[in-house]
Amino acid sequence: MKIALGADHGGYELKEKIKKYLSQKEDIKIVDMGTYSTESVDYPKYGHMVAKSVVEKEVDFGILICGTGIGISIAANKVSGIRAALCTNTTMAKLTRQHNDANILALGARIVGDVLALDIVDEFLATSFEGGRHTRRVETIEACNLF
Prior knowledge:
By secondary structure, the chain is of the alpha/beta class. It is built from 6 helices and 5 strands; from the N terminus they run E-H-E-H-E-H-E-H-E-H-H. The chain has helices spanning 12-23, 43-55, 70-77, 90-100, 114-126, 133-143; strands at residues 2-7, 29-32, 61-66, 84-86, 104-108. The protein has a 5-stranded parallel beta sheet with strand order 2-1-3-5-4, with helices on both faces. Helix 1 crosses helix 5 (114-126) and helix 2 packs across helix 3 (70-77).
C-alpha cells in the first residue's frame, strides 16, 4: 500500500510521527509531500498535492494534517474524486471507510494526541469499503462534482 502524507506547519510534527510509525510496516510505502518544517505555510497547497496524487492513482490513500484538520480537509475535498474525512476517533475512521469509501484521512494535530492519531491511522488503513447500499450514496456524492 502506498500512502501520501501532507501537512502544514501545525501538523508537521504529527506527520513526522505518523511517517516514522508507518515506515516500520513492511507493506506500506510513504510518499512525504511536505511540509518539511514548522515554518509557516499555507495548508491548501498540501491538501491539493495529496489529493491530486490520490486521484491520479499515484498512491492508494492520503493522510493530511493541520492544526484542526478542518482547513486541509476542505482544501482536499475541492478536488474531484476526493472523499477526505476528518476523524477524531477510531469509530469515525472505521465508518468513513466502510460507508463513504473515504480516500483521504484528515487529522487535527491540536485536537488528537499522538497515540490516538496512530490508532485512527491504523483503523482507517485496515478498514475496507462495504459497498452494497453505500455504493449508491458514494456514486451520488461523485455525481455532484462539477470540476
